[in-house]
Amino acid sequence: MSKKQIAYSILDLAIVSEGYSFKQTFDQSIALAKAAEAAGYSRYWLAEHHNSDAIGSSATSMLIGKIASETNYIKVGSGGIMLPNHSPLIIAEQFGTLGILYPNRIDLGLGRAPGTDQATAAAIRSDFYQAAMSFPNEVQQIQNYFSKENATSKVRANVAEGVNVPLYILGSSTDSAHLAAKKGLPYAFASHFATAHLNNALEIYHQEFKQSSVLEKPYTLAGVNIIVADTDEEAEKISTSLYKMIINLLTGKRDYMQPPMEMDEEMREVIQHPSVHQMLKYSFIGSEETVKKQVKAFIETTQVDEIIAVTNIFSSEDRIKSYQLFAEIMQDLNTTDTKV
Q: Could you tell me which of 220, 265, 272, 222 has the C-alpha nearest to residue 246?
């Protein structure tokens, strides 16, 4: 019996560090995608967010196209497109076009959250709440537009019909687990920030999964925060940028990604606050040896099929190195005996 191989991928928010321009940030994402391809990552996803100084991935489909054009074979996609912000027809046309330009390389992950604050969500789409409630129907519309059978329909996304763009359902609670299972689609959980419902959502998905033309059996992906460096102490220091980002998020402060600082007692006390601690529950920070143990335990507990690594830190060089070291961890786990 062959050992289960756990795929490993990247979720990028095009993090804007203090003192860097958007152009520099996008160039850093391209450099990271190239390094990820060389390191054996399965896919490179970009997440849709709006009205945040620290996040540059607002025009998600455009960045996906740029990343795909600068790489050769790694899958590139959305983690995700926040569907209630958009017309399903327009998303089908955008991703159908991407699927034609980059055959068999484009993923379309769909979520129902706004990816922003309430005021901005209303500015994007005045009927956002109604659209969010219609998420299952809008996912079905996307599927219809990509089907060859839609060629006879009155409304068509011509560039999408028959194009291979796999759909993924994203979730941060249990709601989307039911939908992904019902439709027989792969399910990606945002456990890099929404930790409370991970195990329950995975259980629901597995129990309710119905075989489809897409999947014979369930396929799960889970996001985790990964920061790997040469030593535990170095990883801890560069992780302070992530902690400051989360603290700003929780306190409503908009700011760029801040440079790292020494981990002092004040910072240690702040990150033990229940809200911060809960949000970053699935954060694996340290040397290769340390992170390997943490990731192995996470895989054994959740039985996920794929890890989506999220490394939100200040330095592009540190970020690339962390992802390279994490790739070594995953390659080692995939070639040694683990209970997965």
A: 272
**Inside any domain, residue 230:** yes
| Secondary structure (3-state) at 228 | strand
The percent of the chain in helix, strand and coil, each rounded to the nearest 5, is 45, 15, 35
* Contact between 52 and 116 (Cβ < 8 Å): yes
With respect to residue 127, please indicate whether it lies within any of the assigned structural domains.
no
- Total domain count, the chain: 1
3-state class (DSSP) for residue 27: helix
* Residue type for position 161: E
Domain interval for residue 292: 222-340
Q: Which residue carries 């960045």 as its tokens?
A: 63
pTM of the model: 0.95
pLDDT per residue over 174-218, tens digit each? 999 999 999 999 999 999 999 999 999 999 999 999 999 999 999
The answer as to whether 244 is a domain residue is yes
Q: How many CB atoms lie within 10 A of CB 308?
A: 26
Please give the C-alpha separations between residue 65 and each of 111, 285, 306, in angstroms, as whole numbers.
Answer: 20, 31, 23
Does residue 261 sit within a domain? yes
**In angstroms, rounded to a whole number, what is the distance separating the alpha carbons of residues 21 and 233?**
29
> How far does CA 204 lie from the centroid of its chain?
20
